[in-house]
Amino acid sequence: GDPLSFGINLRSPHDISILRTPPWWTETRALSILGLAILAGLLSLVWVYVLRRRVFRQTEIIRLRLESEAALEQRLQYVVRATNDAIWEVDFVTDEVWCGEQFYTIFGYQPGEIELTTAWWSSQIHAEDRARVLASMRSVIDGGGSLWSSEYRHRRGDGSYAYVYDRGYVVRDNAGSALRMTGAMMDVSDRKRAESELEAAK
């Protein structure tokens, strides 16, 4: 046989004897290889432990973040229900607009009948007010500001217009880029009507 190979006698799965070993297979080398195998096994166990710890930490961070977001969402729902204002949010990344329940009540729309995008939102502003309102909002967004407010006419579902006092807060990322704006619209039509009647009575 090959002098550099092992000679093994396999009589049964439980009866194995080594008949010959190559010259390079010494007791010291065998112990070294055994030690390396044990070390590799221990390193594998350590790696698995570290990986499991990392996965656990990441899972915990995600869980806490989801719980925090859920709590914020719940508080937002409480605010929406407690106020007569139309709560809204514009996502500048996705171009989507979200509106609270009061928006549909105040302006006479049904959920699902309108496409909530920034283009639709802009189109609902009275033509005489649109340029002024959008310019003031763009000025705050591009100028690094956080607070915006404006008074204008917003179209209702029946085609008439409501006078609204609108204000919003710009949320930015760490680089200062605007991510979204959250705000609330107050219907001030009754106040405007009273002012007009008072002015006409003079």
Which key features would you list for this structure?
202 residues; alpha+beta; five-stranded antiparallel β-sheet; two-stranded antiparallel ribbon; 5 helices; 7 strands
Protein described:
By secondary structure, this protein is of the alpha+beta class. Helices cover 49% and strands 26% of the residues. It is built from five helices and seven strands; from the N terminus they run E-E-H-E-E-H-H-H-E-E-E-H. It has helices at 27-82, 101-107, 118-123, 127-142, 189-201, and strands at 7-12, 15-20, 86-91, 96-99, 147-155, 161-172, 178-187. A five-stranded antiparallel β-sheet has the order 4-3-7-6-5, sandwiched between helices. The protein has a two-stranded antiparallel ribbon with strand order 1-2. It is rod-shaped and about 120 Å long. The model has no long low-confidence stretch (mean pLDDT 83).
Task: Provide a short characterization of the protein structure.
Helices cover 49% and strands 26% of the residues.
Task: Provide the fold topology.
Blueprint: E1 7-12, E2 15-20, H1 27-82, E3 86-91, E4 96-99, H2 101-107, H3 118-123, H4 127-142, E5 147-155, E6 161-172, E7 178-187, H5 189-201
Antiparallel strand pairs: 1-2, 3-4, 3-7, 5-6, 6-7
Outline: rod-shaped
Helix-strand topology string: EEHEEHHHEEEH
Instruction: Sketch the major β-sheet.
Output: 5 strands, antiparallel
Q: Report the span from N to C terminus.
A: 122 Å
Strand content: 25-35%
Count of DSSP helices? 5
Number of strands: 7
Poorly predicted tracts of residues: none
Structural class: alpha+beta
**Average pLDDT across residues?**
83
